[in-house]
Design brief:
135 residues, 73% helix, elongated, DUF5313, membrane, transmembrane helix, DUF5313 domain-containing protein
Length: 135
């Protein structure tokens, strides 16, 4: 059975921090533990920042007629600072998101760690310990 994905409107709600219905619990866990979990986190943060950046651009560049270069540099620095802090707290943020959907505290981190260890064990069994040797 495949994991049920939320529709685009539900995903937008999820991206800005909302809780999805319980039927999407498994998808939330997959979202937090897939190999691309950090990329997904960055995309969610960019979606969260987009309306704020658009409003600031509208006010500063269009309504107040500030120099476009200064506005774009300022917005770029805002994106940089926002992404910097978002990435610093990405593990905590994703773990909190998973906990909000009914899983134990730090469950996503534990699952990611277990998946990474299983991959490392598989690699070692193939290439280090039991694999073909070249002599």
């Amino acid at each position: 059975m495949s994991v049920k994905r939320p529709n685009p409107a539900q995903w937008l709600w999820y991206a800005v921090g909302g809780k999805l219905p319980d039927r999407y619990r498994e998808w939330v866990l997959h979202d937090a533990t897939a190999p691309t979990w950090l990329v997904r986190h960055v995309i969610r943060r960019l979606v969260f920042m987009a309306p704020i950046l658009a409003a600031l651009y509208l006010v500063l560049a269009v309504m107040m007629n500030f120099d476009l270069t200064i506005v774009l540099v300022g917005l770029g620095l805002g994106v940089y600072a926002g992404m910097y802090y978002s990435l610093i707290f990405s593990t905590h943020s994703v773990d909190s998101r998973v906990t909000r959907h009914g899983y134990p505290d730090q469950y996503a981190s534990q699952v990611r760690k277990a998946l990474k260890q299983a991959e490392r064990d598989r690699y070692n069994a193939t290439w280090r310990n039991g694999g073909a040797t070249s002599r």
